[in-house]
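Collaborator request, handled under Task 6.
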Amino acid sequence: MSTAGPSQGAKAPLGGSGPREAGKRGGATPSTRVQRRPVHGVLLLDKPLGLSSNDALQKAKWLLRAEKAGHTGTLDPLATGVLPLCFGAATKFSALQLEADKTYEATAVLGIKTSTGDAEGEVIEQRAVNVTQADIDRVQKLFTGPIRQVPPMHSALKKDGKALYEYAREGVTVERAARDVTIYKLNIALAQQNIAGAAIKIVATVSKGTYIRTLGEDIGEALGCGAHLSALRRTRTGALDVSRAVTLQQLEAMSEAERMACLQPVDSLLDGHVQVTLDSDNAGRFLSGLRRRTQQPDAEQVAVFGDTPRALLGAAHIKAGELIPTRLLSPIEIDQILTSQAATPVRAELVEALESPVLVTEQADSGRTGH
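Structure tokens returned to the collaborator:
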């Protein structure tokens, strides 16, 4: 029995899934026809409660009049927080966010277990709650670092080509293998008792594939009373923080120029990549798919820029002295990005200082990449 699929469920109560590109149709897309245009960049959206990630994407795509858009992994309607939306050339790098560490803030109600691990499910068990600060400290240490999780039935993982949540809706439970995940940082604190009962606040920075619902349930079991999530907010994905996000309501109130100014550059998705800058001659060859010679050490993730004018050319990796293209922007996309930058005033807080790039000076045609 095997499971395979994205990390945070499709029905995914308080979870998410893989990157999805927006099509021409979507349930939340306003019916008013707009003239589409090429838009390139990343919009950090603070997704509201009750809206699906795809509906949020379609609304933002309509407001920006963008031709092409996709998101970097879903947040369930019951979850809020940062949802990076990729437009145009940025969609080529959206999958990188699936690998990124993520930070969540959650509230777990103690003493009540539900069928889905969140507030949407039916109550299946209730227990008395007798939790001390010493219990909290013990459990916090227990769940910090590498742990193993059994994926929830209400998730998008698949068995025999069928999502687990589909089995769950039919009342069928299938065996799931435990998976290795890492909880890099974890803070658990007793929360004020609310109408739902005793609760804890959880702040966790986690690796790819971690289910926060399952983490909340497992913490509840370790405390001896069971638990389910009543709220979930994603505050960070990779280097992208919710403090820099905008809401749909704010976006709707903006002028078109102000909306465009909210876009992060495409290379904001390449945080942590080694930066290499090519002169104009070698930039043209690189964009044609040709490998370039470099003295730089091997690197799995490289962001490649042209120097005059400075522009992202694509992603690459370095092996045995060769800079090998892996994902390229088209010359048309680069021209559209440069034109947009010249025409649109960019807010200062959206511009990050770039580290000093490495200028590749020794180049030679060495054949087209096989990647």
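The cover message to the collaborator said: "The domain at 103-228 is CATH 3.30.2350.10 (Pseudouridine synthase). The longest strand covers residues 179-194. Please let us know whether this matches your experimental observations."
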